[in-house]
Specification:
By secondary structure, the chain is an all-alpha fold. It is built from 12 helices and no strands. The protein has helices spanning 3-13, 15-34, 37-46, 50-59, 65-78, 80-104, 111-114, 116-120, 141-156, 163-179, 185-206, 208-211. Helix 6 (80-104) runs antiparallel to helix 11.
Length: 213
């Protein structure tokens, strides 16, 4: 089976997830077009509450490198080759995001800079314990990581029941970056593409290591 046939086979087998992911992308494009990138952050900031703040504060850690490392270690414990394929499938999209962030778009400001005047005048809702960054906004590294994990989980889990909940978890984690004033929607949008499609393409290249084991 050729490489692209493998990718096509995965897309067909997991079509519910990838079609839902496509609808999420289309929905994001609609929001970006009709509401706007910065305007969506402003709208999201008005929806803050103590419950939402606490929820998004903790769920954002699902996109952290520590969680990704624990996820990969767990897969290594299940099977050595599974852990290796998973490690490569998560690291490469993450590297792509870091290259884009640090070398292609290093001057892209984060919400803390764009909405600096509102923050200084205390007209912007901030969440306690969140250390706001200033630059390297595009794309979102946390979103890339969580969507890499979600995509990898989908291709490994046979039960279709988990497809939508896993995607929803990825979307919530990505949105947490907006709610915490760390990223804009466009950062999350592109980060999710790099994470999901990047992992799919890398996994397809190394899938034989699992099939032949």
């Amino acid at each position: 089976m050729t490489y692209w046939n493998k990718i096509s086979s995965i897309l067909n087998q997991k079509k519910h997830f990838f079609l839902s992911f496509l609808f999420y992308l289309i929905g994001s494009i609609i929001v970006l077009f009709f509401i706007g990138n910065k305007e969506f952050s402003q709208l999201s900031n008005t929806l803050s509450s103590s419950i939402l703040d606490a929820f998004f504060y903790f769920i954002t850690y699902l996109g952290d490198g520590v969680f990704a490392a624990l996820f990969v270690v767990f897969l290594f414990l299940l099977r050595l080759n599974l852990g290796f394929v998973s490690l490569i499938s998560i690291i490469i999209p993450g590297l792509v995001t870091q290259l884009l962030k640090r070398f292609c778009f290093p001057d892209f400001p984060r919400p803390s800079v764009v909405f600096g005047p509102l923050i200084e005048s205390e007209n912007w809702h901030l969440i306690d314990g969140v250390d706001l960054h200033s630059y390297f906004s595009f794309p979102s590294g946390h979103t890339t990581t969580i969507f890499s994990i979600c995509c990898l989980s989908i291709v490994l889990i046979k039960n279709k029941f988990y497809h939508l909940p896993i995607l929803f978890l990825g979307i919530l984690t990505g949105f947490s970056r907006i709610h915490l004033s760390q990223h804009f929607l466009i950062d999350v949008f592109v980060g999710s593409i790099v994470g999901c499609l990047g992992t799919l393409l890398v996994y397809g290249a190394f899938k034989n290591l699992l099939v032949n084991s």
